[in-house]
Amino acid sequence: MVQPACSALLARAHPASNDDDAHNRREVWVHANAYLLNEERADDFFGWAQEVDFMGRWMPEPGYETEIFLGEHGWAPAFLDRFGVVAETSVQVPHKTRDCPTSVYLTGSEYLSEAGVYDCSLQESHTFLVPQRLLVDGIELRWLGSGTDFFESDGRLGAFASDPTGSVASLLVREDLMRSFLEQEGLALVWAVVGEKEVISGPSGWDWAGSLQFTGAFRYSPRENADDRIDGSLRYCQQFPESRSD
């Protein structure tokens, strides 16, 4: 994987980790999804998103792309036959959940290549994060045979998956490309984040000791100062067992 020489923006990530010792099992997971929406509705969405609880992962998430090759994603006849011929250049997915004030469009998708299919070409299944077609078309990205990297027409890296097959996989898009795309299409970029840190303890290994849940929203603003481009916050809620035996 080739790393870009400039900054990149997260489109989708779902890292998870655990840490075990003789008495406790500690687990942490996070789901961060970036959405595109009409710029005129960005303030409404952001205000709403800072008040709701995303726990339960009820916001739209991408499904799996199957029955195509990775190199066909976004452009090939096999992909167009399965997912549609007309290129979408505006917010088209009418997801309205829990009084969400606007529609949103997903930025990332999950490509799944399964083992055990008819040609027996894979011994293990693989899942990769790839940019949604809206970004592939709008930024003119193409896969050139290098891992999960997607490139511009001039050969420069535009989007890539970090740690493609690991537990901290994430999809990133070059910031300058995303900023130009947002301005061209009149769109805004926002994130919905949800996660949990919990501890399971006791001699049986199944005694739930409590958790710290968090949820929140962030949005991107193309300001001059890089430290001011991401605005938002997380809210936290501690959960404890109602009763515990000594």
What general outline do the C-alpha atoms trace? globular
Averaging pLDDT over every residue, what do you get?
78
| Regions with little confidence, pLDDT below 50 for 5+ residues | 87-94
| Order of helical and strand elements | EEEHEHEEEHEEEEHEEE
Radius of gyration from the CA trace? 20 Å
The fraction of residues in strands falls at 35-45%
Major beta-sheet overview? 11 strands, antiparallel
> Helical stretch count?
4
Count of DSSP E strands? Answer: 14
Helix percent reads 10-25%
Sheet/helix structural class: mainly beta
* Terminal-residue CA separation: 51 Å
Task: Kindly describe this structure.
The protein is mainly beta and about 250 residues long. The chain has helices at about 40-50, 75-85, 135-140, 175-185; strands spanning about 10-15, 15-20, 25-40, 65, 105, 110-115, 125-130, 140-145, 150, 155-160, 170-175, 185-200, 205-220, 230-240. The strands form two sheets. Strands 1, 2, 3, 5, 8, 9, 10, 11, 12, 13 and 14 form an eleven-stranded antiparallel beta sheet that branches. It has a three-stranded mixed beta sheet with strand order 4-6-7. The chain is globular. The chain starts with 7 loop residues before the first strand and ends in a 7-residue tail after the last strand.
